[in-house]
Amino acid sequence: MSDPRLLTQVWREPAIVREFGNPDWEALLVLAGRARLIATMSYRIERCGLREAVPDKVWNHFQASRVFADFRNRRILWEMNRLQRVLRQVDFEVIALKGGAYLLLDLPLAKGRLPADLDVLVRREHLSTLEDLLLNEGWQDVKLNDYDQRYYREWMHEIPPLRHPQRGVEVDVHHALLPMTARLHADIELLWTSARDVETSQFKVLAPEDMILHAVVHLFYDSDFDNRLRDLIDIDEMLRFFSAREGNFWESLIRRAEVHGLEKPLTCALHSTSRILGTPVPSNLSWQAVKPWSVQGMGFLVGRALLPEDPESFNGIDAMVRWLLYVRSHYQRMPLRLLLPHLLYKALSTPDAKSS
Q: Which pLDDT score is estimated for 352?
């Protein structure tokens, strides 16, 4: 039986791999595979100067995972290239989000990631124009029933996904960072005025603080956390990278969260990434954190749910934690008058209620 905490132990203290025997490496590969982190862990180990500690047969697994990750990243870059050709027909700006932005900026965390889709942001008034343009240029709606179409168009922060039949990469066109029915709403105008140009690209990217806050709300406000260690590692890597390069980074991040009204999810994120992954978060940040019991409670739940499930040790408590966070994720983005009918509909109409 492998302990899922081995993943976070290696991330926090990569040097422990010097003491690994074959069973430890086998456990790490199994757990990292479940979490889609094999290539990412390999880069973490290599950047810490520990390549010689990795047996050749393990390094072969690392290399194979890197090749696959490179392939997935090239697919996203090619989809962005195709999308840029279409964007020449319009005069409004488009922001690349998440994995696409990480690739454009060549951030260290982009290496090893396994992006599944391309996320972009446009102003809401340009949403229908871009959707019509993409449909005319060969992208197609992902087949959804009438209820799911309404779910996206009336309540969510994005239109239904689009996919080109020849390439198969899903394009998610957003007009906000959080659903329209959510309790929190980032300042969309601030996102646009602070967005940065990218050399040799038509796409813009969010400012570093906004990029981090987007990852934070995606995980801590709009996610059920089930096997989402990948997302917490994204936050950890961005915090480490930008804090080393952006002047007065931490205070700027706190002020930006306050302007957006995102202090609570950021507090939970900094607490969790520091405790779970060892992110060097300063202890003297000048901000007013949320109630300690709330942060501690979320920390307990998140700590159990983020790690990949081990079939041999999974128990009723783990199942309950995942269910609570799943319900919480929907409660955060929909009021009860919409949430209860929605959950009932999904439970009755689909075998997997977590499809939305």
A: 47
- pLDDT for 350 equals 56
**DSSP assignments along 7-48, one per residue:** HHHHHH-GGGGGG--HHHHHHHHHHHHHTT-HHHHHHHHHHT
User: For 140-150, b where at least 16 C-beta lie within 10 A, e where not — what string?
Assistant: eeeeeeeebee
Other Cβ atoms closer than 10 A to 225: 26
Q: Which two tokens stand for residue 160?
A: 């239904």
**Residue 354's pLDDT is what?**
41
pTM for this prediction: 0.89
Retrieve residue 265's tokens: 């999810």
Total count of residues recorded for the chain: 356
Smallest CA-to-CA distance from 219 within 160, 286, 301, 163 is with: 301
Spans in the chain with pLDDT lower than 50: 1, 352-356
Structural contact between residues 82 and 167, judged by C-beta atoms closer than 8 angstroms:
yes
- DSSP code for 142: P
- Pick from 144, 178, 162, 155: which is nearest to 79 by CA? 162
3-state SS, residue 149: helix
Model pLDDT, residue 116 = 87
Please tell me the distance from the alpha carbon of residue 110 to that of residue 101, in angstroms, as a whole number: 9
